[in-house]
Amino acid sequence: MWAFITSLAAAVAVIVAYLQWMTAQTKVALDVYATRYAIYQDLREAVSNFLRELNFSQEIQAKYMDAQSRARFHFGVEVEQYLESLRRDMIRGHMFDRYGHAEQQLSGVDEQVVRLDRISAFYNEIDRMFVPYMRMDQRMPLWWWPPFVSKVKEALGASKK
Description:
Elements: H1 2-53, H2 58-71, H3 77-99, H4 102-120, H5 122-130, H6 146-160
């Protein structure tokens, strides 16, 4: 009798430990998601402020570079490279708009238009790039995955025969 109670207590302890581990994994996934979403919001705000005035002021630049440096640790290399090229485009757009001379402006207007088109495409590009990182289904327990469930059903069906 005591052996049964001891083994039952051990099984309950294992189940509780497993559920605590799953809870910790879910909390980590939610924390990472929240951090990534904050970076996403900061980048969108900085780019929209730039596009509104075509002015890459110190405040906008500081906010963008802070979000860019945080993104380096939460996203892949392709996101980092894209954000760096976007930062360069915003700096060039700001310089062209503020300090371009009349003769330079005539020859560089097409470049500026292309540059602003690339910056305006930021919203679509950043959404496309961030979506794979913002998914949380990788943290779902194994028994919720359809292939695993179907294999278990097949195994149970085969064992009943």
